[in-house]
Amino acid sequence: MKKKYTPTDRLITRITGWVSLFIVAALAVWGGFTLRNYSKYEQTNDAQIQEYVNPIISRAGGFIVAVKFEENQEVKKGDTLLVIDNREYILQQKQTQAALQKARAELKVLESNTSTTEKQAASARAQVAANKAKVWKQQLDYNRYEKLYNEESATRQRLEDVKATLEVNENDYKSSQDIYAASVSKINDIQAEKTVVLAEIARLKALLDRHKLDVSYTAVTAAYDGRMGRRTVEVGQMIEAGETLAFIVNNETDKWVVANYKETQIKDMHIGDHVKIVADSYPDREFQGTIISLSPATGSSFSLLPPDNSTGNYVKIVQRIPVRIRVDGKRKDIDVLKVGMNVNVYARKKHFNG
C-alpha cells in the first residue's frame, strides 16, 4: 500500500531541508573563515595580560593608626596609603639630636681650651727666650769674674755669688722649657680629643639622618600612579618592617601580553612585528600590539624542575616559547584589559606580510 504524505508532512520536510541547508552553509562559512585565519595568522589562546603588580612593603614596624585607601582605588604618586605610629621614632630622633648638641658643645669647649693653651704656650716660649738670655749674660759675668778671681782682682765670695746666680738662671731656663713642652703636649692632647669628638659628631649626624628616615617611613606613600589591589591591613594592626601590606598596579608602565607560542609557530616572528589581540572578555573588540622580545628559552627550561630527557623517560612534546607583546594604544582605551585576563593573539604569517 503506497504511503501518503499529508500537506503538514511536506511542509515539515521542506522546513527541515532549508534549516539543514542553512546550517551547512553557516558551517561552511565558519570553516572557511577559520581556515583562512589559520592560513593567515599564527595564533594562540595561551596568552595573558601582564602589568607590573608590586607589593606595598613597610620599611618600619609599629601600630597602624590610619589606612587611607580602599581596594581597587586609583591613587597618585605621593599619596599617603598608610600611617604608622611614629612616637617612638620621634623620641629616638630627639635623643640623637640632644646627643649631637652635647657633642657640639664639647667641641666648643675644646676649641676654647685650645685657644687658651696656645696663649699659654706662646707665653712659655717667650719666657724660655728671656731665661736663655739671662743664662747667656750670667755666663759672661761668671767667666769675667772667674778671670778676675784668677788674677786676684775679685773675691771668692763675689765669684760664688755670680756662680749661684748662673745656676738659678739655668734652672729657670730648664723649667721654662719644660713648661713650654707641656703646653705643646697639652695642645696635641686637645687636638686628639677634638678628633674623637668630631668623629662622634659625624656618627651622630648619620644616626640622626637614619632616625629621620625612620620617621619618614612611618608614612607609606604610593611610589607612582596606580590602582590599589588586595588590602590586608586594618587600623590597630601591629606590623613588622618588611611586611607586605597591599598590592599596587603600576599605571605608569606599558601593558603587555605574554603569549606562549608553540616552537613550530615562531619561525617568522621578529621584534617589531605587529599582532592582533582579542580578549575573551571583549570578543568583538580588537587591540593592536607589537612584539618586543622573544624568550631566550622555552618555558619549561625556566621551571623549578626542568625536564631531563637524558633520564630515559623521553616523550617528545612540542615546547612553548614565551613571546612578549606590548599592547599599543592610549591608556584610557586599553585600561579595560586587566592583569591576568586571557586573550587570543594573532601574528600574521610571513607570506601574508606586505
From TrEMBL:
It is found in: Membrane. The keyword Coiled coil applies. Keywords: Coiled coil, Membrane, Transmembrane, Transmembrane helix. Residues 86-162 form a coiled coil. Its main location: membrane. The chain crosses the membrane at residues 12-33. InterPro entries: AaeA-lik-b-barrel, MacA_alpha-hairpin_sf, MdtA-like_BSH, MFP. Residues 56-249 form the Multidrug resistance protein MdtA-like barrel-sandwich hybrid domain. It holds the Pfam family Beta-barrel_AAEA. Residues 257-343 form the p-hydroxybenzoic acid efflux pump subunit AaeA-like beta-barrel domain. It is a single-pass membrane protein. PANTHER family: MEMBRANE FUSION SUBUNIT OF EMRAB-TOLC MULTIDRUG EFFLUX PUMP (PTHR30386), TRANSPORT PROTEIN COMB (PTHR30386:SF26). This is HlyD family secretion protein.
